[in-house]
């Protein structure tokens, strides 16, 4: 067993579906090209999921694993295609900025993304296009809303694995342009997660999408409960040892997902901070709150496509069609 993580277990300090209705209806032809946010997804990024898929871009090879989550992503991809977006906009917790919110404005990011703790699972060669007009519009709208916002234009900067992971799993063909947003790290320095700024960033994102006339799908690249093992089995994809960290962590995730499944999303304004407190949820980085605010906290339920653990962390693939 190799030692991979050092964490203290314990409490946290640190379509178109109305409530109760089933699977979203197919996109109506008359509405098919309307601009705006056409769907939002909770799209978690554990590097294990990409590793398990064995795409040609990732160097390590696996024998599979975490199938239920990967089947959820398969369904996400089918639905995402049906929404016919112009662009994918992703907010990810491992592009950490200490001051303000950064937006990747590099036209063609390319390079090698390596997961620092799991380099034996994720060494991914990426090469994608940025929707620079939309990226710059988000910077502008963020500034207009009073946020410290910055356009990142360093051509050679390495893109983090949470951005690449969510984008790969949502669109492994990489045939859509992307806008990638950083996560301001401040919530990790305060005991109570301060997510208010993420609401402003979400609103600024929506305004920019509307002003540029884009049809956008948004990806919130967050895991849920976030306590995890500090050892790894010899076979990383050994599903015989994959399970929730504790029953309490699992129950916390189920409570949040039940709220999501029932809707409306406004209930998440209270449920997300409570879930963070109970499970050290990665949503503390703000991606889920950003997504909800961007969609205007629609009065709908989310459709949970899959749930599963990855090294004990909780992960759900969820769709909202506002
Ligand atoms: O970043 C992650 C994560 N969010 C969950 C599980 C495993 C590794 O990395
Ligand atoms: Fe993560």
From TrEMBL:
InterPro entries with a match to the protein in the record: Xdiol_dOase_suB
Disordered, as annotated region: 1-28
Domain Extradiol ring-cleavage dioxygenase class III enzyme subunit B: 41-314
Name of one Pfam family that matches: LigB
Record protein name field: Extradiol ring-cleavage dioxygenase class III enzyme subunit B domain-containing protein
């Amino acid at each position: 067993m190799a030692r991979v993580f050092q964490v203290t277990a314990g409490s946290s300090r640190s379509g178109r579906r109305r409530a109760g209705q089933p699977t979203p209806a197919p996109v109506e032809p008359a509405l098919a090209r309307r601009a705006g946010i056409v769907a939002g997804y909770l799209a978690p990024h554990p590097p294990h999921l990409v590793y398990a898929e064995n795409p040609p871009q990732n160097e390590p090879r696996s024998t599979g694993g975490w199938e239920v989550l990967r089947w959820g992503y398969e369904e996400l991809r089918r639905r995402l295609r049906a929404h016919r977006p112009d662009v994918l906009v992703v907010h990810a917790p491992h592009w950490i900025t200490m001051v303000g919110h950064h937006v990747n404005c590099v036209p063609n990011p390319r390079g090698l993304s390596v997961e620092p703790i799991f380099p034996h699972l994720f060494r991914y060669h990426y090469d994608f296009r940025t929707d620079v007009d939309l990226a710059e519009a988000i910077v502008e709208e963020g500034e207009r809303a009073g946020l410290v916002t910055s356009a990142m234009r360093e051509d050679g900067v390495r893109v983090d694995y949470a951005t690449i992971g969510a984008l790969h799993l949502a669109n492994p063909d990489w045939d859509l342009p992307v806008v990638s947003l950083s996560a301001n790290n401040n919530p990790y320095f305060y005991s109570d997660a301060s997510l208010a700024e993420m609401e402003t960033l979400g609103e600024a994102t929506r305004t920019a999408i509307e002003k540029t006339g884009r049809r956008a799908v948004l990806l919130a690249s967050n895991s849920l409960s976030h306590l995890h093992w500090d050892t790894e089995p010899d076979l990383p994809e050994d599903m015989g040892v994959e399970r929730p960290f504790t029953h309490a962590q699992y129950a916390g995730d189920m409570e949040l997902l039940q709220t999501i499944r029932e809707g409306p999303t406004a209930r998440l304004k209270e449920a997300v901070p409570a879930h963070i407190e109970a499970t050290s949820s990665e949503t503390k980085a703000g991606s889920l709150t950003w997504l909800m605010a961007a969609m205007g906290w629609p009065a709908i339920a989310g459709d949970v496509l899959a749930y599963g653990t990855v090294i004990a962390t909780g992960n759900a693939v969820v769709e909202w069609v506002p």
